[in-house]
Design goal:
The chain is α+β, with helices and mostly antiparallel strands. It has 6 helices and 16 strands. β13 and β14 form a beta hairpin.
C-alpha cells in the first residue's frame, strides 16, 4: 500500500554536511543560494530588488559573477559566505506555517528547529494544516531542483476526506482532472482501509501549490486531514510530530544523484 512506502535505512542521526570549496568565479545568485539565504531563482529577485551589494556597490544585473575568495558580498548589510551544506528532514505538525520568516505568522516551522547549527530554509511548502515530511537545507541549488514544479518530484500523501470517495471520482483523479492552472493526474490512488473509503493514499509528481487539496476540492470533497509521508526519497520514519534529524550521508548522496523514485 502507499501508506507503507519503504524509506531509506536512516542509520545514525548524525550531522553530515557536505563541505564545498569555492574557487575562482561564481555567479552571484549561486553564491547567495550557497550561503543559505534562498534558492537561486529567489536570489535573482533579491538582486533585482537592490538589496545585494558586492564590495560596497549595489548589484542589480542578473548573471553577475564574483570572486568568491576576495569579494565582499552582502545581503541587507549582512556579509554572506559559502556555508557547509546542511540537510534536515522534519515531521511537520499541524498549525505551523512553512516559511523561513513571516512577521504575520504566530508559529513557523523554524520555531521547531531549536539546536540546529547553521542557517537553513524549508524546501517547498506544506500549508499550515498539512503535516508530514518536510526538508530543510542551505543548499539553494538542490532546494530548487527538489521544490520547483518543473522538476516534478514524487510525493505521497495520506488523505482523510469528509465522505467516501466515489469510484467514478477515483477513476477521474487517475485519468486527470482539469484545474484553473491546467490538467493534473495522480500516479497512484489507493484505499488505506478498504472498510473506510474516506482514507486514501495518493502518489503524485505535480509540484503545483496545494495540488492534492485542490484535486479533491474540484470534485466536491473536503480534505479533513492531509499528511505527506514521502518526498524525494525521504520519509518521516522514527520522527514524532515536530521532531527533526539530519540526513545521513547516504541519503544526501541519493538526493544529489537524484537516485530515488
Amino acid at each position: 500500500m502507499l501508506s507503507r512506502k519503504p524509506g531509506f535505512d536512516e542509520g545514525r542521526s548524525a550531522a553530515l554536511p557536505v563541505a564545498e570549496s569555492f574557487q575562482g568565479e561564481m555567479r552571484l545568485n549561486k553564491f547567495i543560494a550557497n550561503s543559505g539565504v534562498c534558492s537561486r531563482r529567489e536570489a535573482d529577485t533579491l538582486i533585482q530588488a537592490g538589496v545585494v551589494t558586492v564590495n560596497g556597490e549595489v548589484v542589480t544585473e542578473l548573471g553577475t559573477k564574483i570572486n568568491v575568495l576576495n569579494d565582499d558580498v552582502r545581503f541587507n548589510g549582512e556579509r554572506l559566505k559559502g556555508e557547509e551544506k546542511v540537510y534536515i528532514v522534519m515531521n511537520k505538525p499541524k498549525g505551523f506555517v512553512t516559511t523561513a520568516s513571516d512577521p504575520h505568522a504566530d508559529r513557523t516551522v523554524m520555531d521547531l528547529l531549536k539546536g540546529c547549527k547553521g542557517r537553513v530554509f524549508p524546501v517547498g511548502r506544506l500549508d499550515k494544516a498539512t503535516t508530514g515530511v518536510l526538508m530543510f537545507t542551505n543548499d539553494g541549488e538542490m532546494a530548487e531542483k527538489l521544490a520547483h514544479p518543473s522538476y516534478d518530484k514524487k510525493k505521497i500523501y495520506q488523505v482523510l476526506l469528509d465522505h467516501d470517495l466515489a469510484e467514478a471520482d477515483r477513476d477521474r483523479i487517475l485519468s486527470g482532472v482539469t484545474l484553473v492552472d491546467g490538467d493534473v493526474a495522480a500516479d497512484e490512488l489507493e484505499y488505506i482501509d478498504e472498510g473506510d473509503r474516506r482514507k486514501l493514499g495518493i502518489g503524485i509528481h505535480s509540484g503545483k501549490n496545494r495540488i492534492v487539496r485542490r484535486i479533491f476540492d474540484s470534485l466536491g470533497y473536503d480534505v479533513k486531514a492531509l499528511d505527506r509521508v514521502y518526498f524525494a526519497g525521504l520519509t518521516k520514519k522514527g520522527l514524532q510530530k515536530g521532531e527533526w534529524r539530519y540526513l545521513t550521508e547516504g541519503e544526501v548522496n541519493i538526493l544529489k544523484m537524484g537516485a530515488y523514485v
